[in-house]
Write a structure and sequence with these properties.
alpha+beta; Acyl_CoA_acyltransferase; 29% strand; globular; GNAT_dom; Aminopeptidase; GNAT family N-acetyltransferase; acyltransferase
Length: 174
Amino acid sequence: MSKYIRQATSADLPAMMAIIEQAKTALAADQIPQWQDGYPQSVDLQADIDAKLAWVLIVDGQIAGTATLLTTPDPNYAQISDGSWKATTHHRYTSIHRIAIANGYHGQHLADFYFSNLMTISYQLGFPQIRIDTHLSNKRMQHVITKAGFDYRGVIYIDHQPDEARNAYQILLP
């Protein structure tokens, strides 16, 4: 099996959106309200592509995953409750968002590979700190995140909405 990641292009958008729709369906089946209000939409992914922040996972020539690696501070991470971000001399960080693996590729540990590559890209870009969040009920993603080496740091709120609590995680790359 050949696998790698590359920057997404506009031609990848239909496959990326299909993966996002599969993830939305899986979240709904698990009764997790994350991504059930229309977000993310194709306009969000196209903006990521245009900004060169979108990355696709390629397995045997097929798009098997989609993710965004933000290189600017996420305003949702400015305040954290029930914990704190780990202090570091490197205040700049990337954040991983909108990450999903296509149906048919689950159980192959591709998320481990994907996270490792996103961390490498982050480090190469000069960001030795990475942050990520997921819904409090999304136990599957919490497992994937901590397995990738991220530490739980507390709770953040999307757009400061009390019903939009997310577990927040951080990793510092030495």
